[in-house]
Design brief:
Elements: H1 4-28, H2 33-46, H3 57-80, H4 83-114, H5 120-129, H6 137-143, H7 149-178
Length: 182
């Protein structure tokens, strides 16, 4: 079991690192994800400073930290999005997202089924789970683009909405696969 104090220190340390690296990212224009990944690799598997085994604090806290991080990211996206601009691009963006999700999901599903030999249900679940951009990377990309606000909003909305589809479609497919008579 872990102590609450240690958990808060860990979360505060990671948050501080994230803010510091994000400030560095704004200065030198490199992605803030890469330095955090390198620090994680160095602290975990390389130097074994942090236990990353199945009984570690990291493993126990991972679902909570992930949920908090995604909540903050989506909150920031919502704070920075303009309703007027979103209303201009929402129809075209939704159509684009649905079309690309179907095409990419079908293409990857066919590849995984025929080339890798997976079953149809598993191939489709996998393909639709990875069929779009991430709501984590899209805002960073859009923020640093020198493009019209409509295009930036389009990209951010695409990242967020495709995440929803990447969760819902595989869950529906899993439900159909697990409960075939439902």
């Amino acid at each position: 079991m872990f102590s609450i104090g240690l958990a808060f220190i860990f979360i505060a340390g990671i948050s501080f690192l994230g803010f510091a690296i994000n400030a560095l990212f704004d200065k030198i224009k490199i992605t803030s994800v890469l330095p955090l990944m390198i620090i994680g690799l160095l602290m975990g598997p390389v130097f074994n400073l942090v236990n990353v085994g199945s009984s570690s604090i990291i493993t126990e806290l991972n679902p909570y930290i992930t949920a908090i991080a995604i909540a903050f990211i989506l909150f920031e996206i919502g704070m920075n999005m303009r309703i007027k601009t979103l209303s201009k691009v929402i129809l075209a963006s939704t159509q684009f997202i649905l079309l690309t999700q179907i095409i990419i999901g079908a293409a990857v599903g066919l590849f995984v089924y025929y080339i890798m030999g997976w079953s149809w249900p598993v191939a489709l679940i996998f393909s639709f789970a990875i069929s779009g951009p991430s709501s984590i990377t899209a805002p960073t990309l859009a923020k640093n683009m020198k493009a019209p606000e409509n295009l930036r909003t389009f990209i951010v909305y695409e990242g967020v909405f495709s995440d929803i589809l990447q969760l819902v479609v595989p869950l529906v497919l899993i439900s159909i696969y697990v409960i075939p008579n439902a």
